[in-house]
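tool_call: predict_structure(chain=1)
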Amino acid sequence: MELGAIIIIGRNLGKATSAGPPYKAPFNSSCQKPMVCWDLLGASPLRRMVAQLRESGVQLISALDSVAPEHKTGAQSWEQAVLDYARGGVEEILLLDLRAYTEMNLYELVSFHRDNSSPVTNVADDRGLVGITLLRASAIDQDDNLSRRLQALSSCSSTFEFSGFVHRLVSPADYRELVQSALSGACNIKPIAREIQPGVWMGEGARVASSVRVLGPCFLGAKTRVKAGSVIRSGSAIERECEIDCGTVVEAASILPRTYVAPGLRVSNAVVDGGRFVHLGRKLEVELADTGLVGSTGKRASRRILDSLGSVFALGGSGLDLPTPSRAPASLDYVRGNGFME
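tool_result:
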């Protein structure tokens, strides 16, 4: 039987919960990408799921945004894809709501589905549904509303109890926990990099000054640059094309691609994406791009530093009055005083 897979980004087919109170501000990455599209040790959970499916022999794969405009028929994009698969002769359709990273044995799921002769099989672990559904295309009325049809089929669906690795991705804290699991070898995620010493992975073209201290397990992505006097501590992941300036300490934190971090900072228990900073301990998200402390590597680092130190030059009466919204230098004390970093 031909099996096709449809990956749905941003729609919750099952229940995914995260412990603890919500963040004080809703987290919207500056790149406006869903969390499953964030780089994680060199490749996003989405790319890793596609690779898993390919390795399992699935060749027909579609990845769709659940908030994309409706099809001219009125169906959501994923619904239209299911109908197109069915009309194209695909006999079994795997729906994956990618709000969790799951290491699924597809052979076991398909065998269970066929042995039970159910039109629909849902995958669940001890916390509930994980957002993976396998359905028979013959059970779909191609002229009916697919959502209503799936609801009608729920009464005769079966449940595949999954005991393997599942990690739900609801908050930045969930993302960081998955990074830690990968670095510690608790799951099958492998860094896209070379292990230059036990527990230290470095991507192609990454550069580290000779005075930098690197303590594993940690990850440095492709073309990332870490300048003199910096310290990269255990549990940290600095993704591709980042720049960590002189004397900065990164500890148990994730720096997302193309992010600049100014000199003399300590970034701990956090996720940083360009100018966006999330402190995991305080569940606080702030925009720091205007301060010059963090930002995008697309801007010249020298200009950012001058902007952030402008008020210091002005105090000296030298006439170098470089305006900056924060009026504060890129210093550790400033960050601590505002409660953004430990």
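agent: Residues 211 and 229 are 5 Å apart (CA to CA). Proceeding to next step.
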